Amino acid sequence: MTERIFEQDAFARQTTATVTGCAAGENGFAVTLDKTVFFPEGGGQPGDRGRLDDTLVLDTQEQDGDVVHLCDRPLKPGDNVEAVLDFDRRFDMMQQHTGEHMLSYAFWKLFDAVNVGFHLTEELATLDLDRPMDPQQIRQAVAFANRQGFEDHPIRVYTARAEDLDPARVRKISAKGGQTPRVVDMEEGDVCTCCGTHVRSTGQALPITVTHADKHKAGVRLTFLCGGRALAHWQKLADVTDALGRLFSTDAAQLPDRVRELQQSAAEARRRLREIADALAELEAARILAGRGDDTVVLACLENTPAGEAKTMLNLLIRQPVCAVVVYTQGDTLGFYCGAHPKSKCDCRQACELLCGILNGKGGGKTDFAQGGAKKTDDWQERARSVVQVLNRQASAR
């Protein structure tokens, strides 16, 4: 069995070890050592990375009670290697894991909420609680956890007999720890059985912040950041706030008011544009209808037009006893609508079939309404006009 140096000293960064085994696997070469500073994935914490001499350790797992280093190339059993941990990554993981204990204790202490899930990756950490939490309660718990960090209480790690642990003081006793579980004990704070690695004092996990709260099952899932991750998050927010302040020529405190003013102005502008677009559509529809002569089928060709506006044009046209074809573009695509006034004797399905045929498109519908689409061509307007001409000739022959 591998001697687990990290269990006694989570800040040990390297050691000289002897290779005790090596086997090829799907994810590299599984290497075992007589001792290691590498933590294997467990307790919600990812496995460590680093190197054994010049061989990369891509992940660390536990298999059959032993620590297995997944390496990018094989090592020879019996050889001595220098096992060097990627400590920057490990320290980040320890900050997140320690912060998770501190947050879990805060919610347990203040609101009797129980941690029922913890997930940690390179980008984020989440904590699942068994009951909902409102924004004010979350703020209270985060403030509580940070206050314990400011007090910088020492963190002890030791093994104890499960029956000797006081359930009133210990937040969680995991059955995975067996009869002599490993205990993480924060002075005047959280006490919990845990296999992971942690920093030496609560202050080393600061700052702690919750960035999102989402409903999860019967409770809530909190996304949180600790230590360096939290600092990077707040620096990014400060940079964004500063840039927005310069754009709006105001300070951060006034940004919400300025954004609300902008939203109101934008809403008013959209309303006015809608009115103008509706008026223009009315004029265009009137122009098309006035110029139709004896034609039963009319055509509107619209460039770079949303589908909703094209549908509006169709409805304006078929207020008169005609059949209308509206063809519109959106980027590299074409859309088309065919609609008929109740007194019109046009078949919109036939019109759609002709459009699909000449435009190499797809579509379908009913006698009084059909629609379709195709890829835009340079001569799409000419093709659409040719279809309408056919439809008008057929209507005249009836």
Topology of this protein?
Elements: E1 3-4, H1 5-8, E2 14-25, E3 28-33, E4 35-36, E5 50-52, E6 55-63, E7 66-71, E8 80-85, H2 87-111, E9 115-120, E10 125-129, H3 135-150, E11 155-159, E12 182-186, E13 191-193, E14 208-216, E15 219-226, H4 228-248, H5 255-290, E16 297-302, H6 307-317, E17 323-330, E18 333-340, H7 348-359, E19 362-365, E20 369-375, H8 380-397
Parallel strand pairs: 1-4, 16-17
Antiparallel strand pairs: 2-3, 2-8, 3-7, 5-6, 5-8, 6-7, 9-10, 10-15, 11-12, 12-13, 14-15, 17-18, 18-20, 19-20
Helix pairs in contact: 2-3, 5-6, 7-8
Commentary on this structure:
- 36% of the residues lie in helices and 30% in strands.
- It has helices at residues 5-8, 87-111, 135-150, 228-248, 255-290, 307-317, 348-359, 380-397, and strands spanning 3-4, 14-25, 28-33, 35-36, 50-52, 55-63, 66-71, 80-85, 115-120, 125-129, 155-159, 182-186, 191-193, 208-216, 219-226, 297-302, 323-330, 333-340, 362-365, 369-375.
- A 6-stranded antiparallel barrel has the order 2-3-7-6-5-8. A 5-stranded mixed beta sheet has the order 16-17-18-20-19, with helices on both faces. A 4-stranded antiparallel beta sheet has the order 9-10-15-14.
- α2 (87-111) crosses α3, α5 packs parallel to α6 (307-317) and α7 (348-359) packs antiparallel against α8 (380-397).
What is the CATH topology classification name of the largest domain? Threonyl-tRNA Synthetase, Chain A, domain 2
- Count every helix, treating DSSP H or I runs of 4 or more residues as helices: 8
Low-pLDDT sequence parts:
none
Report the top-level CATH class of the largest domain.
Answer: Alpha Beta
Spatial extent as radius of gyration: 35 Å
Under CATH, the homologous superfamily of the largest domain reads Threonyl-trna Synthetase, Chain A, domain 2
What letter string, H or E per element, gives the SSE order?
EHEEEEEEEHEEHEEEEEHHEHEEHEEH
Structural domains: how many? 3
Major β-sheet profile = 6 strands, antiparallel, barrel
Strand content: 25-35%
Given the helix and strand composition, which structural class is it?
Answer: alpha+beta
Distance between the termini: 94 Å
Q: What overall geometry do the principal axes of the alpha carbons give?
A: elongated
Strand line-up in the sheet with most strands:
2-3-7-6-5-8
Overall mean confidence score, pLDDT: 94
Q: Based on the structure given, which CATH architecture of the largest domain is correct?
A: 2-Layer Sandwich
Number of strands: 20
